[in-house]
Amino acid sequence: MARPRSFDRDHVLHAAERQFRASGYNGTSVDDISAATGLGRGSLYAAFDGKRGVLMQAMGGYFARLGEGPRKMLAGPDEGALERLHAYLLRAVHGVPLAPDVPPASDRTGAACFAAKMALEIGASDPEVQRLASDCFSVVRTAVAECVRAAQRNGDIDPDADPDDLAYLLLTVIRGSDVVGAYGHSPDRLTSIAESAFALLPRPRHH
Amino acid sequence: MARPRSFDRDHVLHAAERQFRASGYNGTSVDDISAATGLGRGSLYAAFDGKRGVLMQAMGGYFARLGEGPRKMLAGPDEGALERLHAYLLRAVHGVPLAPDVPPASDRTGAACFAAKMALEIGASDPEVQRLASDCFSVVRTAVAECVRAAQRNGDIDPDADPDDLAYLLLTVIRGSDVVGAYGHSPDRLTSIAESAFALLPRPRHH
DNA sequence: ACCCTTCTTGACAACCCAGTACAGAACCGC
DNA sequence: GCGGTTCTGTACTGGGTTGTCAAGAAGGGT
């Protein structure tokens, strides 16, 4: 028995995320968010409790969204695990998409992991941002490690290798491609990096 | 026949760099720089032409300093090339030091590559920052590639591997460790990542 | 049709920030 | 010692920022 809100919450958070990714946290003003989302200042403060609230909720949504990619791409039977890892790596080095349906390559500007970017900019003085970014890394790392174990069970990766170490290394490559690929490098170069990393994975010494 | 300046230019730029690394570009005000360097606003504008000028000159100094590390650590005869690469990797994943004599591990906050951090924050709207960061990557990448070639000549790395591809991959790992290691991971974890990356380098198949 | 609750909009005040201008201080050369 | 030139510190201004507030709009329930 009251006026319903006239905006879609997720849509607003997506627009804000795009803005934050493009301009950074301190580089975007509330007016920028207002313009990007179409919401007035009052609505922003009522619904999200200001700039910082928008960021936190946008990052929360990002986190929820981020886990789905690796989980869906990497989960499955042991047989195809290595190939799934290959496909995931090739995609992951090209950035994290804003939405599941829009490819990240379209605008290199906002391709880098949202959580990583925010953590680098303001994480030093914001433990909550820090923690959220850490969670984002964990979800990817865990999924990759699980896929590595599957590949090991299938005999595609050296069983003596530590799957957690490999997962950390691959996560590092993926996050590193965010910054290496951010400017001055073509998508082909990123693909090449992913292929190199994949090719170097330790194969079992057959017989 | 005039009053000499009472501050050491490099010292000021180092202090400013530390501040920028800690708070980001948009997160530090001119007053912050003034407090960190001990210089008044007037001197800052006269000597460095404002906030942006300080950043550019600090990045310039950083670039000049950055190249020395890999060049000195990686250059040398072919025999020890692989071991030099090993040592360099182990050091590089722990960040880029503010000064050559101070270890980067002391404050994880400012350990990440200065150029990369600035490029991620404001590179999208600042081509010059973008280019400077790109140069920083190139100098590391070139030195690594040269060292890989040396190791190949010495028979320590598979001669069929593309040294440029490997250098790109290692650069990506190094930059990735900036963001992965920024928060929530111990130095031991970074060391472990470096060791994993080194262990995976393609060795020549000896007969 | 009416009322009440919630949302929305625009304006407002306090604050911070970058850059400038001006006055004083320090140093070198003579 | 003295003049001139440069450096240093501070006060000022115009613009932009954040967070709040009050008035209007819009819809649901009765």
From TrEMBL, chains A, B:
It holds the Pfam family TetR_N. It comes from the Bacteria. SUPFAM superfamilies: Homeodomain-like (SSF46689), Tetracyclin repressor-like, C-terminal domain (SSF48498). Keywords: DNA-binding, Transcription, Transcription regulation. PROSITE patterns: HTH_TETR_1, HTH_TETR_2. InterPro entries: DNA-bd_HTH_TetR-type_CS (IPR023772), Homeodomain-like_sf (IPR009057), HTH_TetR (IPR001647), Tet_transcr_reg_TetR-rel_C_sf (IPR036271), TetR_C (IPR011075). GO terms for molecular function: DNA binding. Residues 29-48 bind DNA. The keyword Transmembrane helix does not apply. Residues 6-66 form the HTH tetR-type domain. PANTHER family: HTH-TYPE TRANSCRIPTIONAL REGULATOR YJDC, TRANSCRIPTIONAL REGULATORY PROTEIN. This is TetR family transcriptional regulator.
